[in-house]
Amino acid sequence: MTLRNVLIVYRKELLDMMRDRRTLFATLVFPLVLFPLLSTGFAKLSEMSLEKTRREAQRIMLLGEEHAPELAARIRADEQFDVVAPEANFREQINEKKLRAAVEFPPGFQASLEQGAPAPEIRIYLYQTELRSEAAAERLEAIAREYREQVVGRRLASRGFSAALLKPVETRREDVARAEQVAGMRLGRLLPYFIILLCASGALHPAIDLTAGEKERGTLETLLASAARRIELVAGKFLVVLTLSLVTTLLALGSFAYSVLYLQRGGSGASETFTVSAGSAVLVFALVLPVAVLLSGVLLALAVFAKSYKEAQSYTGYVMLGVLLPAIGSVLPGVEINPVTAWVPILNVSLVAQEIFTGSFPWLSIALVLISSCVYAALGLGLAAWQFNREEVLFRA
Questions:
Q1: Which residues contact 74 (CB under 8 A, 6 or more apart)?
Q2: DSSP secondary structure string, 188-238?
Q3: Count of H helices and E strands in the chain?
Q4: Domain 57-166 class, CATH top level
């Protein structure tokens, strides 16, 4: 294998890719707009939605209000609620989201309190998982707790005791984590997921176009008849796929850095500070590089096996699913980097990158992840080379 022939193939294929609009969009445009759109666009929409929810009075219904006039008066006095007249079909109204919640006071509620007897329970009806309904129910529970504490305090005072008897011990949390560690943990759990996903998406279209696409266009046979050896062809194509994958990833990281700076300057009211040192960025890139090699090799191997562009999309779709599952697994609670997970591809890089973004550097785990990733990268590259050497694959009819 001669480097000159590899570079000739690489330059030729890269120029062809740059003339393709789909490649330009997937490689250059999409990663540049992704994070600014998420941070400035969706963050603004979320902020506006939450603000609207806070300002909007939630429609609720009080059932059996005459049984608990004191507590009902407290609920009516709360500006968060718009209390409507009781109706028998309150359950249907909650299901249809015309009503956010309903409170049912049992008979004899107030009388039981005045006599010092245990009061029957209050029922709060809500639509579980509906944001406004759950918020209304939480506020109703808070009002009930405040009222309960006041009733207990009155009972103790009537017997000459202090309400402090109910709270002999007070606790207070003191967070020792630095602000950048907190921000790093929150953003660091999602950032590796996006990095791996973009790394795969950047390699997807070039891998298909350089193999199955050339089969459809009838240009693959011309390349095979050239002076370049088979291994030089696969090396040149592989380098093109790897280049576009890394360019997509680097542009996405630059887009992310801009988004973080925007947030920290008060673009959306963010108060946390997220910083990544140059050393951390280089280390994460070094971890992602073998993953890009692995994905580029596997995608090339699968795409060249296909007879058409459409068939290649079907095959490579399973690779994207295989990338998503371990990447999603990295954000699950309790999943941490250890000698076992360090050998699970994709998952290992996501987990150790999370540690790096929080300012922690588990060097033994980092070394294990680099070693395992390089092993998998070599296997992926070897798979691509093996596929290109099989005549029955290259000339599938």
A1: 143, 146, 147
A2: HHHHHHHHHHHHHHHHHHHHHIIIIIHHHHT-HHHHHTSSS-HHHHHHHHH
A3: 17, 4
A4: alpha beta
Report how far apart, in Å, the C-alpha atoms of 333 and of each of 330, 336, 337 are.
8, 8, 12
Q: Which residues pair with 103 in a beta bridge?
A: 62, 124
Q: Please tell me what DSSP assigns to residue 358.
A: T
Residue 342 DSSP one-character state: G
Euclidean distance between CA atoms 357 and 256, whole angstroms? 13
What residue spans define the domains of the chain?
3-37+179-394, 57-166
Cα separation, 231 vs 385, whole angstroms:
7
CA 145 to chain centre: 35
Lowest mean pLDDT among 16-25, 98-107, 126-135, 172-181: 172-181
Q: For 349-389, what is each residue's pLDDT tens digit? A: 989 988 888 878 899 999 999 999 999 999 999 998 998 88
Asked whether residue 269 carries a pLDDT value surpassing 60, the answer given is no
pLDDT digits (tens, 9 = 90+) for 156-195: 888 877 767 767 778 888 877 666 666 666 666 777 888 8
